[in-house]
Each structure stands twice: as C-alpha cells, then as structure tokens.
Amino acid sequence: MNNKFIRIYEDIAARIRTGEIEAGTLLPSELDLSESYQTSRETIRKALKMLSEEGYIQKIQGKGSIVLDIRKIDFPISGLVSFKELAKKMGHRAKTYVKVFEEKKVDQTLFKKINFGLNEKVWEIRRVRQVDGEHVILDKDHISQRLIPGLSKEICNDSIFEYIEEELGLTISFAKKEILVEEPTAEDRELLDLEGFHNVVVVRSQVYLEDASQFQFTEARHRPDKFRFVDFARRR
C-alpha cells in the first residue's frame, strides 16, 4: 500500500519516543530495515525522509541515520529565537494554541510587573505550546500597541517576531532575561500537562527594538522535562 511508509515512520517514531531506540544510536541500514519490515528500500527511504523532516533522526553521509534526543528542546539563553523557528526543527511535532488575545490598559497590578507606562494600551496574549501531543509551555505576553500595531489572533498563532520583522519592518535587537524555578500556578495546572511535576521553569523576558524601546514583556512557563537551556560562554 502507498501509505506503508507512514506506518513504518509511526512505528520507528514511537520507539524513539519511548526510548526503545536510544538517542545517539544508528538506525539499521536501509537494507536491514527493508528486510525487517518486508518492504522495498524505496518505502524505507520515504519513512526515513519523514523521520528526518520531523526531527527524529539526522542523516550523516557515510554513516547512516543517527537518532536524535527528542526528549529535550534546546532553548538558547542569550539568543532571541521565536518558537516558530524552534518548531521548524521539530516538523509537525509542535503546535501553538492561542488561548487569550485581548486589548487592555496597564493597571497598577500590571505596572508593578512590566516596564510599560501606566494606562498604556497593550495586547495581552496567552499561548500554549504543544510538543509531541503534550502541552508543555505557557507563553504569557504583553505587547505595546503603540509600537506593535495591527496584531491579530492569526498572527499570534503563527509568529509575532516574523510579523514585526517582515510586515512592520522593525528590528528586534535585544532582551533582558530572568530564569527561575517556581511552583505551578492554578493556570499552569489548567493549561499544561503537569501531572507528576511539581515545578515549572519560568523565563521572564523584556524585549527591545533597535532604538531601545521595550515592546514586549514575556513570561514563558516551561514543563521542566522537555527543555534544555543552552548558551555559549567564553572566559575573558
């Protein structure tokens, strides 16, 4: 059948997710896989191509297909990377759901948390990030309407950074970040799959444009098992 390669892809992907096939190991050769699944090498090639596109394996010339560690996603600490850019490495394993998209004014409570003016109009956004069928990140954003006009729920579901840079023609320059470990809130418990987890990793970011204007305050709340925060450090 034409979709046999999909069933092979799903079988191998499931075995990688459960750890039956360990990260860092090489998959059997195309010939061995074709014999194991009793199918043609062309069908195996299609399954391997799909596994590569979905971020399960990396093909290495002269060696074969090495299994990637899908349990954790690398988040650069010093870099400014959108979730859409990270999701490209995961293929269709990652999805975004916009739970809240509202216009509001900065009140006294919000004023104490973010570096925006009192009564300034902002977009309030809540997005849940799903990876491998599990809700593992809650992104809570406040974005200046004055600096970033025209936002929509559809843009938030795709990529806010891409809209700012490609549609508005603005340059996102730098961010100040704070990383903490906290107990999950009631909202975390409601929106994320946290059964068995007693902490979340919280990354709070103030994000600035090229002229040093802060346009965004983000609080990203991560389930701790899925993410690895990485950076490159040099001794001065």
TrEMBL record:
Q: Which InterPro entries match?
A: Bact_HTH_transcr_reg (IPR050679), Chorismate_lyase_/UTRA_dom_sf (IPR028978), TreR (IPR012770), Tscrpt_reg_HTH_GntR (IPR000524), UTRA (IPR011663), WH-like_DNA-bd_sf (IPR036388), WH_DNA-bd_sf (IPR036390)
Q: Which SMART domains match?
A: HTH_GNTR, UTRA
Q: Which domain of life is it from?
A: Bacteria
Query: Which Gene3D superfamilies does its entry note?
Result: Chorismate lyase-like, Winged helix-like DNA-binding domain superfamily/Winged helix DNA-binding domain
Per the UniProt record, which residue ranges are transmembrane?
Answer: none
PROSITE patterns according to UniProt: HTH_GNTR
Q: Which CDD domains match?
A: WHTH_GntR
Q: Does the keyword Transcription apply?
A: yes
What keywords does the record list, in alphabetical order?
DNA-binding, Repressor, Transcription, Transcription regulation
Listed name of the protein: Trehalose operon repressor
Q: Can you cite a GO biological process for this protein?
A: negative regulation of DNA-templated transcription
What SUPFAM superfamilies would the database entry show? Chorismate lyase-like, Winged helix' DNA-binding domain
Ranges for domain HTH gntR-type come to: 2-70
Instruction: Give GO MF terms, alphabetically.
Output: DNA binding; DNA-binding transcription factor activity
Matching entries from Pfam families are given as: GntR, UTRA
